[in-house]
Amino acid sequence: MDGGGQKWRGIGASKRLEPDKVPEQAKENSQTYREVHREVKDVSNKNVKQDAFDNLADALTEDILNTPDDELLREVEEDYGDRRALAIKFDQILERAKKQVSERARPSSVLDLLYRLREGASTLFGGWTPANAMVWAAPAAVLIVLILAPAVYRSMSEVDKRSEQLAALEKEQLARSEQLAAQEKELLARSEQLAAQGKELLARLARSEDRPQLAEVSPSSALTGAPSEERNWEEKDRKAEEAWKEWQKSKSARPICENVTEPFEHLICADADLEFWQHLMMEIYRHRMLQLDTNGQEILRQGQLDWLRNMRFDCNAAFQVPVSETEMARAKSCVLQSTKERVAVLTNN
Amino acid sequence: MSELLSLAEIESLISRLTVADRTRLIRIAQKYKGRIKYEPEDLVNEALCRVLEERRSWPRRVETMPFLVGVIKSIASEWKQDLVEGIDVEDEGAKGARDLSRDRNKADYCPLRR
Q1: DSSP assigned state of A261
Q2: End-to-end CA distance of chain B
Q3: Which of A115, B29, B90, B114 has the most crowded Cβ, counting Cβ within 10 A?
Q4: For the whole model, what pTM was predicted?
Q5: Phi, psi dihedrals of residue A323, rounded to the nearest 5°
Q6: What are the CA-CA distances from residue A188 to residues A181, A184, A191, A194, A200 (Å)?
């Protein structure tokens, strides 16, 4: 049993091979066995207890299933004061389960919160009977109002905010329409002003055409009885001035853009842009005339006549009865361009 | 016709449970409360959830009460198994152990409402 025995030894055999320690080992082994045995016994007891409990529960379940309805409900009435107490509890659980199933993937809502509160109250205060349901109805209603109040307030705030935005928008629209009305008024005033300027412009245009003629006529008449050239020119100017005044008087008696007959008059009176540039050109011309001496005035006058002659030649259609609107437009453009160039020349001189 | 009930049929059968049958189901759940720390309502709730989610198939040949009672017993047994061996079920830690166990398979359970 020496060497060969070692081959067959099992758990704890190494200790048994030492003869000096046999009693101690035996004692130790015995203790270990007792501990293991106790543990096994405990587990076994636990299992036995659990099995017994399960068997009891199963037996009670069978008993409940076999109890007649009336007897079962009477017991419930004795325990809870209401035959339907547990049935109502079941309905609540069923409702909750249905909700859970449908909301598994959805976040909890306000209604869910209310449901939780109701469930909490139910757990705290026992069975949910119709009597205490009535008692709790009022606090529940208050609770619902408290919970929903912020949401309602938020909605109302939203509505108020929108109303304010609409009011602001309306105000802005009103201000804009007032601004537009003011702009229209201004435009009207400007067009009236332009119309008046156009009339004046036409008058001056006519003067610019006439004055050279007067100037041309005057020297010849002045030369006949004048002793010196200087006096002749003075006389010429005086007569020219008188003739100019007469012409102005006759012109002012006749409104320029009323009863116009000449095609050029029609053209000027029909277009605000043209009126403006003609007026501007005449203003500059008049201003230059006042600045210059007699000689200079003569040169300027001659230049003006040349310009008019060239314009008549270049913008021939403006001085004839228009055949078509296209011709009229072309004539207008031509006169406008020529007038602008003349303004530039007068300004630079 | 399928051997299993459809959801509509399940809902219809559950809604037709009598007052006595509904009372019985709660009473039975109460009997299984015993050594495991859950509320009878939780047990019934979990059973109904699983049935309504069709995680527990309902064979057409099985009647309503035996089927529902079977589901309740099955869940009670499952939850008892959830309590890891060696933990005294009477211990205060039992509830925590059960909760841990549930967290492990949270998606499989309907949330508890206490």
Answers
A1: -
A2: 40
A3: B29
A4: 0.37
A5: -85, -40
A6: 10, 6, 5, 10, 18
DSSP state of A317: G
Encoded tokens for B8: 């509509």
Nearest CA-CA partner of B69 in A71, A88, A62, A84: A62
Whether ipTM tops 0.95, in short, is no
Q: How far is B77 from chain A (nearest CA, A)?
A: 9
Cβ atoms B100, B87 nearer than 8 A: no
Q: What is the pLDDT along chain A (349 residues), one digit of tens a residue?
A: 444 444 444 344 444 445 556 556 666 666 665 665 565 555 556 566 666 767 788 888 999 999 999 999 999 999 999 999 999 999 999 999 998 888 775 554 555 556 566 665 555 555 555 565 666 677 777 887 787 777 777 767 777 777 788 888 888 878 877 877 777 677 667 666 766 665 666 666 556 555 444 444 444 443 444 456 677 777 766 766 676 666 556 555 444 555 666 777 777 777 778 888 888 888 888 888 888 888 888 899 889 888 888 888 888 777 777 667 787 788 888 888 898 899 888 887 6
Q: Do B27 and A86 touch (CB under 8 A)?
A: yes
Between vectors from CA A284 to CA A280 and to CA A287, what angle results, nearest 5°?
Answer: 140
- Residues 6 or more apart from A13 whose CB is under 8 A from it? A6
For residue B88, the chain A residue with the least C-alpha distance is: A46
Cβ distance of B45 and A93 shorter than 8 Å: yes
Q: How far apart are CA A80 and CA A91, in angstroms?
A: 16
* Cα gap A128→A140, rounded to integer Å: 14
Alpha-carbon distance of A137 to A121, in angstroms, equals: 12
In the stretch 34-93 of chain B, residues with CB closer than 8 A to chain A read: 34-35, 41, 44-45, 48-49, 52-53, 65, 69, 73, 76-77, 80
CB contact under 8 A, A97 and B52: yes
Q: Return d(Cα A126, Cα B46) in angstroms, integer.
A: 21
Token pair for A84: 């339907």
What lies within 8 Å, CB to CB, of A316 at 6+ separation is A331
Phi, psi of B59, rounded to the nearest 5 degrees: -65, 140
Residue A172 to residue A277: CA distance in whole angstroms: 38
Domain ranges of chain B: 7-108
Tokens for A343, please give them: 């303004």
Cβ-contact B29, B44 below 8 angstroms: yes
Radius of gyration over every alpha carbon of chain B, rounded to an integer in angstroms: 15
d(CA B12, CA A94): 12
